Structures are given as C-alpha cells and as structure tokens.
Amino acid sequence: MPMYQPTKVEVGGGGQVLDLDTAVKDGVLGGVDDNGGFTPSSEKLDLKKMIEELEAIEVPTVFICPISLEPMLDPVTLCTGQTYERCNIMKWLSLGHLTCPTTMQELWDDSITPNKTLQQLIYSWFSQKYMAMKKKSEDVQGRVLEILENLKKLKGQARVQALKGLKLVVGNHFSAKKTMVDNGGVAFLSSLLGPFTSHAVGSEVVGILVNLSLDFESKSNLTQPAKISLMVDMLNEGSIETKVNCTKLIQGLMETKDFDPELVSSLSLLVGLLKLVKDKRNSNGIQPGLSLLKMISSHECVWSSIVSIGAIPQLVDLLPSLKAECLELALSILDNLASIEDGRLALKNCPNTILNLVKLLMRISENCTQLSLSILWAVCKLSPEECAPIAVEAGLAAKLLLVIQSGCNPALKQQSAELLKLCSLNYTATIFISKCKLTRTLQ
After folding, report:
1. CA distances to 2, 171, 197, 209 from 212, in Å
2. pLDDT tens across 231-275, in order?
3. What are the residue ranges spanned by the domains of the chain?
4. Rounded distance, CA 296 to CA 266, Å?
5. H helices within 183-266, ranges in order?
6. pLDDT (tens digit per residue) in 100-129
7. Number of neighbouring beta carbons within 10 Å of residue 34
8. 3-state DSSP of 130-176
9. In the CATH hierarchy, which fold is given to the domain comprising 8-132?
10. What is the DSSP letter of 265?
C-alpha cells in the first residue's frame, strides 16, 4: 500500500528540496516565530484579496492546485499524498471518480485531510509578497520626493537626467502621480518652464505634466504667455513624442474656464499643428493634432489665421486617408472655417473639395454626412453656376436622394432637399433626373 509522502518544496538558488514541515520549522518560507508557530501579522490580510492583487507574480508550484492551476486557499490532501483545493477535489469526487486526478491511483480511502501546514505557508508567502508590494509603493513615493528635492539643486544635464527618471516613475506608478500632485510637484515643474528653459528640460517637464491631473490653479499658471511660447517652440522643433505631449498639454490648458484664445492664435502654433497632422512617418500625431486644431477653430478670432496658412487645401487633401475618428475632427475644422468668406473661397478654389466631400456622404457616420453637407452647401451657394455642375457630376444628386430617403434626422433631410434644389437650377428636368440615377454612385 502506498505510503504518504510529505509535500516537497524547492527553495533557494541551490535547488535545495525540503519537506513542508522542515520548511516551516526552519523558517525558509517565513511565517514562523521562535516557538515554531505561525507568526501572526499585525494586520490580518485576506488571502483571496492578496492572490488577486498579486495575480502577475510567479507562484511556487507547490501552492498550485493541479486541477484548477490556481493558488490554493483551502488545501486538502488525499490518501495518495497529493494535495488539492478543497472545492475542486470535492467536485471531482462528487462526479463518482474513485482515483487521484494527478496520479490516477485508485483511492483506497476517500477521506480528505486539511493541509494546515501548507495553508500557513501559502498565507505566509503571499503576505510577504503583498507587504513587499506595499512597501515598494511607499518606496516609489519616497523616490518621487527625493527626485523633487534633488531637482532644486541640479542644473544642466544632471537636471535633464533627473527629470527623465521622474518621468519614468510617474508614467509607471499611479502612487507617483498622486505624490506629485499632493506635494507641490506640479507647481515646481511649472516653475521650470520659461523663456530661458532649454528644450531638453522643457520636453521632459511637459512629458511629466501631461500625465498628471492638473487643477485650475496649475492650469492657470501654465497658461502664462512665456510657457505657452516654449511649448509652441517645442511642438515645432522637438521629437514626435515631445510634439504630441505639447499638443495634449495645450489642449488640456484650453479646457480651463475663461481661457484666452489669443494665446493659441500664433501662426507658429497653427503651422506646427498642420505639420504634425501631415507627418506620414508618425501617424500617432494626427489625432492629437486635429483634436487641438478643432478646439482652436471653435474660436472665431482664429479663423482668418488658420485660413491664411493654407490649412483648408491641406486638410481637404488629407480627408481620403483619415480614419473615422480623425475624419470627423477634420470636417469639423473645415465646417468652422466655412463660416467666413475667405474660408468658403478657399474651399471653392481647392480642386478636391467637392469630390472628396461627396464621397463621404452616407459612408462613415451621420455626423460626417451632416458636416460634409454643411460644407458643400456653403461652397455651392457661394458659386452655384460653377460648383453645382461639378457636384452633380461627382454624384451629389444621387447621394442627396439617398439621404432624403434614409432615416437621418429631419434637419439633415431638409438641408439635403435644399441643396438638391440648388443643384437642379442649371439643368432641364429630364437631364437632372438622369443625373440622379444611383447606379454610377453606388459603384
């Protein structure tokens, strides 16, 4: 008859193998006091919670249930000497199995014995790992405070390296972000930005700030003209990471109540954003760039400036290559710019405006269709004799009929009907009806 064998566990770098009783007595896995008993923690920790929070950690195989392959909470041992999680082995036995799941030996005794020694070891091991994790979190907070203190003394390249280290810590640990905010880190970093700040320092500071939750006071401090000017310079000259970070930070600052749009009306900023969204080598800058440009274009005082740098033809030519979320941003910008005469004229003079917009009708989303129709209406109304025939030849009439017959909102249908009427003025009834056939459009 097979004899019970003590569960073995391998510990240490030398591969020493001990049975659990020896491991407990010698304190190899911890959790043992001077009297040979389990050392109680000052804080009773929940084993299940610890296992969940330490999910990514590598667990000793002896702690794993062979059935579920999960750490055991309530280990029990069969007569074969194999240990399982209680609920798992009870389910196995309830299904009528009379063998050990691991060895497939026949069970001469179907009783199960609680393995208290292993349970204590599991609890002790996870407790130590959990407390180490908590200490590491506290160490992260201490590290942040240490770097902040050192930054007050460091200059030049040493300051840049310290900021790189701080950015890495803040980017990887939530507790580091909270420590920064709670201990004046935001105000200190903001003080490092100014007219004489090097781009090396500025890019690291912005890279940290963009990952933090900024309150009203912090945002107001960062909207000082000298700080905005530095961000604009780095947006034009920095790496793609710096450009994206500057773009996101400026957008966050614009969300402040009573933000002055004049701060973001500089041609340098607008040109930098256009370069960012047109950079085919780094597509991760397109969405942030368009998002900020859309927010800027919501201010009427900036419309003429955006038109003057040739933004309209560049955005129109980008439309066919944009993804859905970026497409709506670009169309919103063009729709805003179509509110002024110079904007409408630039749209009319761009050879691809009508063709690209007609293609978007009823293809992406109702919002894209609505924005495209709004822009087409502005262009065709500006010069119906010149633009309406081009639009009809591009398939606009047939697309408008689709919109009118669809389940779109009434306002969109009304606008489509008015644009259809405008396009029909240059045709006889028979010719216009032939232009409304859907075959070519659907193809």
Report:
1. 62, 9, 21, 5
2. 999 999 999 999 999 999 999 999 887 888 888 889 999 999 999
3. 8-132, 154-258
4. 11
5. 185-191, 199-209, 216-222, 225-237, 240-254
6. 998 898 888 888 899 998 888 888 888 887
7. 7
8. HHHHHHHHHHHHHHHHHHHHHHCCCCHHHHHHHHHHHHHHHHHCHHH
9. Herpes Virus-1 (3.30.40)
10. -
